[in-house]
Design goal:
With 146 residues, the protein is mainly beta. The protein has a single domain (39-145), classed as Immunoglobulin-like. The protein has two helices and ten strands.
Length: 146
Protein backbone atom coordinates (compact mmCIF):
# COMPACT_ATOMS: atom_id res chain seq x y z
CA UNK A 1 0.00 0.00 0.00
CA UNK A 2 2.85 2.37 0.90
CA UNK A 3 4.47 1.73 -2.52
CA UNK A 4 1.22 2.52 -4.32
CA UNK A 5 0.76 5.74 -2.35
CA UNK A 6 4.37 6.80 -3.02
CA UNK A 7 4.02 6.08 -6.74
CA UNK A 8 0.77 8.08 -6.93
CA UNK A 9 2.37 11.03 -5.13
CA UNK A 10 5.40 11.00 -7.45
CA UNK A 11 3.18 10.80 -10.52
CA UNK A 12 1.13 13.74 -9.29
CA UNK A 13 4.09 16.04 -8.67
CA UNK A 14 6.57 14.90 -11.33
CA UNK A 15 4.36 15.48 -14.39
CA UNK A 16 5.10 18.04 -17.07
CA UNK A 17 5.07 21.69 -16.08
CA UNK A 18 1.81 23.44 -16.80
CA UNK A 19 1.94 26.16 -19.43
CA UNK A 20 1.46 29.61 -18.00
CA UNK A 21 -0.49 32.41 -19.67
CA UNK A 22 1.54 34.79 -21.83
CA UNK A 23 1.56 37.56 -19.22
CA UNK A 24 2.20 37.67 -15.49
CA UNK A 25 -0.55 40.05 -14.38
CA UNK A 26 -3.92 39.09 -15.86
CA UNK A 27 -5.76 41.69 -13.71
CA UNK A 28 -9.57 41.81 -13.83
CA UNK A 29 -9.94 40.65 -17.42
CA UNK A 30 -8.28 37.30 -16.65
CA UNK A 31 -7.38 35.10 -19.61
CA UNK A 32 -8.91 37.63 -22.03
CA UNK A 33 -6.34 40.29 -21.03
CA UNK A 34 -4.62 42.04 -23.92
CA UNK A 35 -1.19 40.83 -22.79
CA UNK A 36 -2.39 37.19 -22.97
CA UNK A 37 -3.12 37.26 -26.73
CA UNK A 38 -1.11 35.29 -29.26
CA UNK A 39 -0.64 36.09 -32.93
CA UNK A 40 -3.59 35.79 -35.32
CA UNK A 41 -3.69 32.49 -37.21
CA UNK A 42 -4.54 32.86 -40.90
CA UNK A 43 -6.09 30.01 -42.89
CA UNK A 44 -6.86 30.27 -46.62
CA UNK A 45 -9.43 28.10 -48.38
CA UNK A 46 -8.70 28.02 -52.10
CA UNK A 47 -8.94 25.25 -54.66
CA UNK A 48 -5.52 23.59 -54.96
CA UNK A 49 -3.68 25.90 -52.56
CA UNK A 50 -2.26 25.07 -49.10
CA UNK A 51 -4.30 25.98 -46.02
CA UNK A 52 -1.41 27.79 -44.40
CA UNK A 53 2.08 27.41 -43.06
CA UNK A 54 2.44 25.01 -40.18
CA UNK A 55 2.77 23.68 -37.73
CA UNK A 56 1.05 26.37 -35.71
CA UNK A 57 2.29 26.36 -32.09
CA UNK A 58 -0.13 27.59 -29.43
CA UNK A 59 0.30 27.96 -25.70
CA UNK A 60 -2.30 26.49 -23.37
CA UNK A 61 -4.09 29.27 -21.50
CA UNK A 62 -3.46 31.91 -24.17
CA UNK A 63 -6.10 33.72 -26.24
CA UNK A 64 -5.96 33.52 -30.04
CA UNK A 65 -7.90 34.60 -33.12
CA UNK A 66 -8.15 32.57 -36.32
CA UNK A 67 -9.18 34.12 -39.63
CA UNK A 68 -10.47 31.64 -42.21
CA UNK A 69 -10.74 33.20 -45.66
CA UNK A 70 -12.27 31.49 -48.69
CA UNK A 71 -11.58 32.96 -52.13
CA UNK A 72 -14.70 31.46 -53.75
CA UNK A 73 -12.85 29.22 -56.25
CA UNK A 74 -14.80 26.22 -54.95
CA UNK A 75 -17.25 25.18 -52.26
CA UNK A 76 -14.79 24.21 -49.54
CA UNK A 77 -15.19 23.03 -45.97
CA UNK A 78 -12.79 22.91 -43.05
CA UNK A 79 -13.07 20.31 -40.33
CA UNK A 80 -11.18 19.61 -37.12
CA UNK A 81 -13.43 18.29 -34.34
CA UNK A 82 -10.50 17.16 -32.15
CA UNK A 83 -8.96 20.62 -32.30
CA UNK A 84 -12.30 22.37 -31.74
CA UNK A 85 -12.81 20.30 -28.58
CA UNK A 86 -9.34 21.14 -27.26
CA UNK A 87 -10.15 24.87 -27.11
CA UNK A 88 -12.67 27.11 -25.39
CA UNK A 89 -14.34 29.06 -28.17
CA UNK A 90 -15.18 32.65 -27.31
CA UNK A 91 -17.03 33.65 -30.49
CA UNK A 92 -17.33 33.22 -34.24
CA UNK A 93 -17.87 36.34 -36.35
CA UNK A 94 -19.36 36.03 -39.85
CA UNK A 95 -20.50 39.19 -41.67
CA UNK A 96 -20.46 41.16 -38.41
CA UNK A 97 -22.75 38.59 -36.75
CA UNK A 98 -21.28 37.26 -33.51
CA UNK A 99 -22.08 33.67 -32.53
CA UNK A 100 -21.05 32.17 -29.18
CA UNK A 101 -21.22 28.40 -29.69
CA UNK A 102 -20.63 25.57 -27.25
CA UNK A 103 -18.79 23.55 -29.90
CA UNK A 104 -18.44 23.10 -33.64
CA UNK A 105 -17.16 20.37 -35.95
CA UNK A 106 -16.55 22.28 -39.15
CA UNK A 107 -17.00 25.36 -41.33
CA UNK A 108 -18.16 25.34 -44.95
CA UNK A 109 -17.88 28.20 -47.42
CA UNK A 110 -20.17 28.22 -50.47
CA UNK A 111 -18.84 31.59 -51.66
CA UNK A 112 -15.93 33.92 -50.95
CA UNK A 113 -15.85 35.31 -47.44
CA UNK A 114 -14.14 35.40 -44.07
CA UNK A 115 -15.02 33.85 -40.74
CA UNK A 116 -13.12 34.88 -37.64
CA UNK A 117 -13.17 33.05 -34.38
CA UNK A 118 -11.48 33.69 -31.08
CA UNK A 119 -10.58 31.06 -28.54
CA UNK A 120 -8.42 30.06 -25.62
CA UNK A 121 -6.17 27.05 -26.23
CA UNK A 122 -6.84 24.54 -23.46
CA UNK A 123 -5.85 20.89 -23.96
CA UNK A 124 -2.21 20.26 -24.91
CA UNK A 125 -1.70 17.95 -27.87
CA UNK A 126 -1.23 17.69 -31.62
CA UNK A 127 -4.26 18.41 -33.80
CA UNK A 128 -5.17 18.95 -37.45
CA UNK A 129 -7.71 21.04 -39.28
CA UNK A 130 -8.25 19.91 -42.85
CA UNK A 131 -10.40 20.00 -45.94
CA UNK A 132 -12.75 16.99 -45.65
CA UNK A 133 -12.11 14.13 -48.07
CA UNK A 134 -8.57 15.20 -48.94
CA UNK A 135 -5.32 13.38 -48.22
CA UNK A 136 -2.66 15.88 -49.31
CA UNK A 137 -0.37 17.40 -46.68
CA UNK A 138 -1.02 20.90 -48.03
CA UNK A 139 -4.75 20.39 -47.42
CA UNK A 140 -4.24 20.04 -43.67
CA UNK A 141 -2.78 22.34 -41.06
CA UNK A 142 -1.12 20.95 -37.96
CA UNK A 143 -1.83 22.78 -34.72
CA UNK A 144 0.10 22.01 -31.52
CA UNK A 145 -1.02 23.19 -28.11
CA UNK A 146 1.77 23.16 -25.50
Amino acid sequence: MRTLLTAATLALFSGPALAAPLCDNLAFSGLLAKCNRGDTIEVTLSSGKPLGEGPVILESGAYYEMEITADGTAEIGLTGPDFFRAIWMDEIVINDIEVRPMAIDSFEFDDAGTAEFSFIAIKPGRYHILIPGTTGESQRLEIRIQ
